[in-house]
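Consider this today:
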Amino acid sequence: MWDGELLEKLEAKEGKPLSDKTIAGEYPDYQRKISATRDGLKVTFGKVRATWDLLTSGESEYQVHKSLPVQTEINGNRFTSKAHINGSTTLYTTYSHLLTAQEVSKEQMQIRDILARPAFYLTASQQRWEEYLKKGLTNPDATPEQTRVAVKAIETLNGNWRSPGGAVKFNTVTPSVTGRWFSGNQTWPWDTWKQAFAMAHFNPDIAKENIRAVFSWQIQPGDSVRPQDVGFVPDLIAWNLSPERGGDGGNWNERNTKPSLAAWSVMEVYNVTQDKAWLAEMYPKLVAYHDWWLRNRDHNGNGVPEYGATRDKAHNTESGEMLFTVKKGNKEETQSGLNNYARVVEKGQYDSLEIPAQVAASWESGRDDAAVFGFIDKEQLDKYVASGGKRSDWTVKFAENRSPGRNVAGLLAIAGVGGSGQLICTAITIIWRRWQPSLGKPEEAKRYRQFGTAARGLHQHLYVRPDYPVLL
């Protein structure tokens, strides 16, 4: 016998409700319904489009199938399933969470085949995982503890693999399957570069797919939303598009990109697979991304990009002026424009400033809300001022990057030169030294060699002691 029930309360912690609110009361259109089937049950869900809470298609189902007939009784949101078993019996169960009618239809043949020959699928799964371990556990000097960590990493990365769905047209890998803001098929470039670098060694096909997923939404010439950002890679893509792109998702994010370790990741896939077609596929995408960094994030033209924020409704007025909110006491006022911002900062008559572009710039660096971008709590700031510092020391300066037509293309947070290392990695280590012989592009090789030589010298001047060897 199996029994169970659907959750009723909206919120709970350690099994205890946090309020009297119910799921049905908050989302009346959800309409969850348990139905009995010949070999199990299914739960169907109504359509809900609550951007920050719940997004369902109205076609999704959760199905449970067993390898022997069962009789299921339904009582509201509760069920009891029974099967008649004589003697020792081995049974098999499939669990499927299906999000669209197309997925529901496609899955049925797969379920029938699994239950018809379960031993075949179990053996195939075991062989597949053994192959992952064979490919991934190749370090002869690894200690038992290190090997256990490696196995766990392989399990986690493969476990976070998600099939194509919604706006994500390729297999992808998510940072988590349990964290609310990191699950589903949400895909970040920052995570992808590192995930794919590792997966290249034991699951290279999915490593490639994860990278392809990120670049599938790279901004192309003539883009209707941000034509000034050709080559740009969004910070986050997901099942549901943003309203600007015709969807109703809230997590989709084009306010910033992430540090570009793209070529480093792509090259590791090539090092493992020796797939020259892979290089040819990725090369133009990486060049476009590299050029976007120099065009839209290198404000002073010295070859070292800054981190910043795109032109976006969260950051700018319709005419492109930077938005910021001045808070003092229980009052707050939203203003716009760099000149106004400078005047407010100079007068200092505020308790705090909220600047959406500042937040996005920190996201773009991969160091969310880092101190280098001016994020400091009140207690820390008070101690700093008491020790002789000035509050203005923590005020971030901004600059406007403009497109050739002089329209605002983005905002730069002038807080450091952290983008230089990743750009040098893209320009020199990958394109110049390794790729050009394989791709046969001598003129482009010359271009990147010249850029790389200049950027490497600047990098050494900014970061490295004169007596310290440069490893690039």
